[in-house]
Predict the structure of PIH1 domain-containing protein 1.
Amino acid sequence: FCIKAYKKGTEEKFFINLCQTDGIPPPRDITEDELIRILNDGEPNAFRIPMSITQPRPTVDKSSQGCQVCDIAINTKFYANIEFGGLLREFLISVLFDGVENKYNISLDESNFRILKNKKFMDKLIPHNIQNRDVKQVIESYPTQSDEDRALLTELDNPRPLMAGTQPKKPLIEEIGDAGTVKTVKNETNSSRTTTPVPVKATSSSSGSVSGSSTIAPYVPDPTKVAISQAATKKPESKLFREPSAGRAKRLIGEFHLPDCVSSSEITLDVGEDRVLLEARKKGYLLDVFVDYRIDESKVEAHFDTTTKILQVSMPVLAA
């Protein structure tokens, strides 16, 4: 369903599309009586609801007025428990509002909202990026785990083997040792390289956590990017290196091969706390990946080598 809300202290509309997916684990089973006890004890964090929140994006309402919308996905079985109302749904809506505020610093007025009767969603729903590590963290937090939970944990730790005759997929991001060695090789093989800087946008991450908010204003993606991500695009060959090669990583070096690009002006690069979004719209390149590090978005630098057609991105690391 779709919630129509307003940013606190304004008349600016903000819509939330509540979606369901099996890709997110459910919260632990809870009765309304247990939830009432938790709320009366002043411990709402004792019951946590896993969800994935997309970045707010611009759209227009039925009056052609500008507004914003985001999609929030929860588990399918849990959705069935709250679909028809009750205390659990009221609690969920409160959590949705908190999630938007914590992640994107957007305060919504909880006293002024309604669930739309004749419209299930605003705009077009966009894909979510759900990380295996987030799924594992949720399941491991359960007081007791079912056989199904344990089987899923085993599968996440040990991915299924390939069928006979199939080829393994090359990883989008490949972590292979020290960045210094690679840079030396490149300098030796091409001493007359021309590199041009690429502007880097700092953008809030959109992984499945609702805790923590970005230290910068949230970046609202161009709606065209959404269409591109759903169309036929090609992923550039890419590698990720770390410095130093052992111990705590201080910097990540990403290398992205864009053979069809002529200049840096064709490239758009957005780097979030744990996310790299790269596109060259006219050439059909799109890459959207997460890394297991916290990146210092404010110090990211990127240069495009017009000879080798490699975009090199330097990303200082805050913490692993």
